[in-house]
Amino acid sequence: VPTHVKSICCIGAGYVGGPTCSVIALKCPHIKVTIVDINPVRIAAWNSDVLPVYEPGLDEVVRECRGRNLFFSTDVDAAIKEADLIFVSVNTPTKTSGVGKGFAADLHYVEASTRRIASVATSSKIIVEKSTVPCRTAASMRTILESNSTFAADGTQISFQILSNPEFLAEGTAIRDLFAPDRVLIGSLDTQQGKAAANALSEVYENWVDRSKVYQTGLWSSELSKLAANALLAQRISSINSLAAICEATGANVDEVAHACGLDGRIGNKFLKASVGFGGSCFQKDILNLVYLSESLGLKEVSDYWHQVIKMNEYSKERFARKVVSTLFNTITFKKIAVLGFAFKKDTGDTREAAAITLCKYFRQERAFIAIYDPKVTTNQIMLDLTEPGVVDDAEAVRKQVRIATSMQDACDDAEAVIICTEWDEFKNASKQEWEAIYKAMKKPSFLFDGRGIVDTKMLREVGFKVHAVGKGP
Ligand code: NAD
Ligand code: UGA
């Protein structure tokens, strides 16, 4: 197994594989990095001027190294053969059928990649789990690789070392997170070969990350730490959102409560922003995965404990939607609702599990008309997200009820209520004059529901809006 890495292949050119390996190429000009995917449209986009992932700073990174030591390709086999080290960075969504449906991770993309490596490799390699996977997935990967490994040209048996190297970047700040990670976690088997492989990967990161930030652990701890970190982060949001409900009922202000608690060094002030509910491709999926893991291990109380984090998140979204309906005199049927923001957070075009999707579906069931504006999400993506797969006439029904607007003002024209779903700076920094123009064009009374706690409620009340902000009493 290689002890120094000269060539890297990344299987999976998604939100993680693309940015992560582009940064490795930037920081390690002596390493050839090839990012491969079975989706030719995605690879074509990575090779074009409009990258398939929107991330501040990503364009610059790709522009500097693409064609130098960074390549995007659909030739998976060639890249596997050439590499000393292979990142497996494919999707691991929640299973939608079969055993563990709705909870367990669907590992068939990971397994397909592993089998591909086993069948085409002609030399020994380090295989790195970058995808978020259930604890002990590396053991299955090793069994597949060992059972299928062949012989190199010189007759020696090919061998593989498997490492776990979970990714902790957050979307919208991916490049910043990759340039200066809080830590790089590398899990390996506690053997001489395992440690040597971990050191080889560490050496790659040490081109820009201080060695003190690289934390080496056992394989299983590393795999579990990724699920644990996401569960702990999401748990903080559900905790503050549960307190937001109490704030609204009592007149306390959730921002003040969060600030007061966060001043305690043991608690800290990060990840305590109350919201309409968390979204994103991973928090829910990874906690469901942890719930399934705990249950499979016979740990029902543990499983129930983490499941509550998801249930609280569902409750937060529903509570907010109900508040809209009850405030608008208990009916929004045929009323026009403006939805500002569709991405699951600011500075990304990603809509996976976005709270806006749940809210819009709820408003549609109440037969409201919805106008949606998001600075980065495409019309196609919004329509796709609001269409139930398998419902034939659903797309047509969505088109009748939903309009995609081109600006805040456009979305709000003639609306009875504005709903802020994403904390885009454009909404946060809108001036009093802009809100006055919006107010003027709306039906009266004009309601504003701030699902992100970003607008100046005092100023908006001065303008004339009837404002409801999450976690803030009347
Ligand atoms: P993604 O869906 O954006 O990308 C995955 C890519 O893998 C897709 O383009 C798909 O076509 C490709 N792929 C699937 N099977 C393949 C195969 N056999 N050969 C080649 N390509 C294949 O997913 P993502 O958001 O990049 O997430 C990838 C993993 O990283 C997941 O396990 C996720 O949990 C984890 N993760 C995601 C984030 C995030 O912010 N999105 C952060 C940390 C960890
Ligand atoms: C999250 C983690 O932060 C990353 O460390 C992790 O690598 C990643 O999941 C992953 O495994 O995919 P991400 O989902 O991209 O990153 O974005 P976050 O910043 O964590 O936000 C997630 C959701 O929580 C968003 O909808 C955000 O608006 C919401 N949130 C966040 C709040 O409602 N309140 C907060 O205080 C923070």
TrEMBL record:
It is an enzyme of class 1 (oxidoreductase). Pathway: Nucleotide-sugar biosynthesis; UDP-alpha-D-glucuronate biosynthesis; UDP-alpha-D-glucuronate from UDP-alpha-D-glucose: step 1/1. It catalyses: UDP-alpha-D-glucose + 2 NAD(+) + H2O = UDP-alpha-D-glucuronate + 2 NADH + 3 H(+). Gene3D superfamilies: Cytochrome c1, transmembrane anchor, C-terminal, NAD(P)-binding Rossmann-like Domain. The keyword Nucleus does not apply. GO terms for cellular component: nucleus. GO terms for molecular function: NAD binding; UDP-glucose 6-dehydrogenase activity. The keyword NAD applies. InterPro entries: 6-PGluconate_DH-like_C_sf, NAD(P)-bd_dom_sf, UDP-Glc/GDP-Man, UDP-Glc/GDP-Man_DH_C, UDP-Glc/GDP-Man_DH_C_sf, UDP-Glc/GDP-Man_DH_dimer, UDP-Glc/GDP-Man_DH_N, UDPglc_DH_euk. Keywords: NAD, Oxidoreductase. The active site is at residue 282. NAD(+) binds at residues 12-17, 37, 42, 90-94, 131-132, 171, 282-285, 352. Substrate binds at residues 167-171, 226-230, 266, 273-279, 344-345, 452. Residues 338-457 form the UDP-glucose/GDP-mannose dehydrogenase C-terminal domain. One of its GO terms (biological process) is UDP-glucuronate biosynthetic process. Its EC number is 1.1.1.22. Belongs to the UDP-glucose/GDP-mannose dehydrogenase family. This is UDP-glucose 6-dehydrogenase.
